Amino acid sequence: xxxxxxxxxxxxxxxxxxxxxxxxxxxxxxxxxxxxxxxxxxxxxxxxxxxxxxxxxxxxxxxxxxxxxxxxxxxxxxxxxxxxxxxx
Length: 88
What we know:
Mean pLDDT: 77
Low-confidence stretches: none
Number of domains: 1
Order of helices and strands: HHHEE
Helix content: over 70%
Strand content: 5-15%
Strand order of the largest sheet: 1-2
């Protein structure tokens, strides 16, 4: 049960920080300084923060990188996935 609560907390932080930055970026004055780069950093930093905060509890089963690596292995010649790592 602890693993599921940790994943829920990580998803909540990702959505609140990332989507919150995107809302502020589109809100206009006085939040024009957020921009696209700020939204990208908000998503990236929230993933890194949650990986460090709850990684030992949930086991860091992040579906998006695993799925991206699998698709890349199917579409790009010479790139494979071995033991959950992308090998070129």
